[in-house]
Design a protein that fits this description.
Blueprint: E1 5-9, H1 13-25, E2 29-33, H2 36-45, E3 50-54, H3 62-72, E4 78-82, H4 87-95, E5 100-103, H5 108-136, H6 146-159, E6 165-168, H7 175-184, E7 193-197, H8 203-211, E8 212-213, E9 225-226, H9 228-231, E10 236-240, H10 247-259, E11 261-262, E12 271-272, E13 276-281, H11 285-290, H12 296-302, E14 305-308, H13 319-334, E15 340-341, H14 343-351, H15 357-371, E16 376-377, H16 379-385, H17 405-423, H18 428-435, H19 439-449
Parallel strand pairs: 1-2, 1-3, 3-4, 4-5, 6-13, 6-14, 7-10, 10-13, 15-16
Antiparallel strand pairs: 8-9, 11-12
């Protein structure tokens, strides 16, 4: 985390110098300006953790500046400074949202005590926000399949590094869950985790969303606004569905990654940002690059470490464990009636096709908990409420086209081995152990059927 930042707004050079020297000695990052206009501009460029604001200022006075600042940022912590503070001034300042009022000449011990108390409140607000974020966030990565164990191991290895990570996988596989796990395992875990769904924001607004804007820079820009890069300062920025980002925004993101600074739309001065960027996509960015829809240089900036989240069909052994986890989680968090899942129900769920992956499975468990009538969800409930969609490979499929029994056996064995190798990420030793086949035999089968890893 970066140092706490303090903004001092006072027209007396002596006050600015004295406060600046005191606060910098205490380890704070201090910026001092002489009037309200400069103070509001400085706060818009970089949100300060606390503002010391003089009541009497040239031009806009401090009380009016307090109103403007609090209107733009209701969470701003502002301490007013007055050379002749009265009870009326203190009451008015408090009514307008001031944290406290200090009287000149400033007492060093009083300043430091008030500062510690105010920043303790800031820390408490941040901690509460982080806890709410964690409570609302998806939970652990559930599963014991080889693919999921390998993914968790990769997350553990890369989380503590500053490396950028590109997370790939189909819709509903849990890419956001991986991003949150990377954040929580990093030195930035106490900082913000800011998510941007690039596919959900219109192309004409994505730059404003990412980089912010200044008042009047375009129609509807009624106030200065910090973008997601600034909001994620000291933490992690997660760019979900990065493959859908507009080309103009891609260029600016590349520049931000290279120079560690952003410029708001309509602004002239760049703002330094300390952000770790994680990105995710359900597209093959290599194909998008070939089609001219994604910048190759940005791809290599983002994909320092690529992580792939497997689809549910490649981790079918995890379905019973996931189903039980979702049933317990929904009952606990949403107040739903707790119900167990029978072995028949779990078997039926494992045989179904899940094109929507883990997200679809969770929604299905929620539906079963709502509409099942008995103390346990049964196979009959699954048939009645979900249907009998058979997964690819679970029925005969193309095997029924075999002309002879020998052709059928070969085709079935080939499909079985190929699926198991995919599930175990083509780790031949692990696959042989799971299917209880000598490794040498498995190598012979791979050669016999011409099995090759997907590109």
């Amino acid at each position: 985390m970066s140092r706490r930042s303090i903004l001092v707004v006072d027209d007396e050079p002596g006050i600015r110098a004295a406060l600046g020297q005191l606060l910098e000695y205490e380890g704070y990052d201090v910026r001092a300006v002489a009037d309200a206009a400069q103070g509001l501009a400085a706060y818009a460029e970089r949100r300060a953790d606390l503002v010391f604001l003089d009541v009497k200022l040239p031009g806009m006075d401090g009380l009016r500046a307090l109103e403007v600042l609090r209107a733009r940022d209701p969470g701003a912590i502002v301490v007013m400074i007055s050379g002749h503070a009265t009870l009326q001034t203190a009451v008015e300042a408090t009514q307008k949202g001031a944290y406290d009022v200090l009287e000149k000449p400033l007492d060093t011990d009083r300043v430091l005590l008030l500062l510690r108390n105010a920043l303790a409140q800031v820390a408490l607000v941040e901690e509460n926000a982080l806890l709410r974020q964690q409570a609302a966030a998806p939970g652990e990565i559930v599963g014991e399949s080889f693919a999921i164990r390998a993914l968790r191991e990769q997350i553990a290895r890369v989380a503590g590094t500053p490396a950028r990570v590109l997370i790939t996988g189909e819709n509903g596989t849990g890419k956001e869950l991986v991003a949150r796990a990377l954040h929580q395992g990093s030195p930035r875990a106490s900082g913000p985790f800011v998510e941007v769904n690039c596919a959900a924001i219109p192309s004409e607004l994505i730059e404003s969303e990412l980089f912010g804007h200044v008042k009047g820079s375009f129609t509807g820009a009624v106030a200065d606004r910090a973008g997601k890069f600034e909001q994620a300062h000291g933490g992690t920025l997660f760019l979900d569905e990065i493959g859908d980002m507009a080309p103009a925004a891609q260029a600016k993101v590349l520049r931000a990654l290279q120079e560690h600074e952003v410029t708001r739309i309509g602004g002239a001065k760049p703002v330094t940002v300390d952000v770790r960027v994680l990105a995710a996509t359900n597209k093959r960015l290599e194909d998008e690059i070939a089609e001219g829809r994604f910048r190759e240089d940005l791809y290599y900036r983002l994909a320092v470490v690529p992580l792939h989240v497997p689809p549910l069909r490649e981790r079918r052994d995890d379905i019973p464990r996931l189903a039980r986890h979702f049933a317990a989680d929904l009952a606990r968090r949403d107040g739903m009636s707790p119900r167990s899942l029978s072995e028949g129900a779990l078997g039926a769920l494992s045989r179904l096709d899940w094109p929507g992956n883990v997200r679809e499975l969770r929604n299905t468990i929620e539906r079963l908990l709502i509409f099942a009538t008995g103390p346990a969800v049964t196979e009959a409930d699954v048939d009645r409420l979900v249907g009998r969609r058979v997964a690819d490979g679970a029925g005969l499929g193309g095997l029924a086209e075999a002309r002879t029994y020998e052709e059928f056996k070969d085709a079935a064995e080939r499909a079985f081995l190929l699926q198991k190798l995919r599930v175990h990420d083509w780790n031949v030793a692990e696959t042989a152990r799971v299917i209880e086949m000598p490794r040498s035999n498995l190598y012979k089968k791979i050669e016999k059927y011409g099995l090759v890893r997907d590109a």
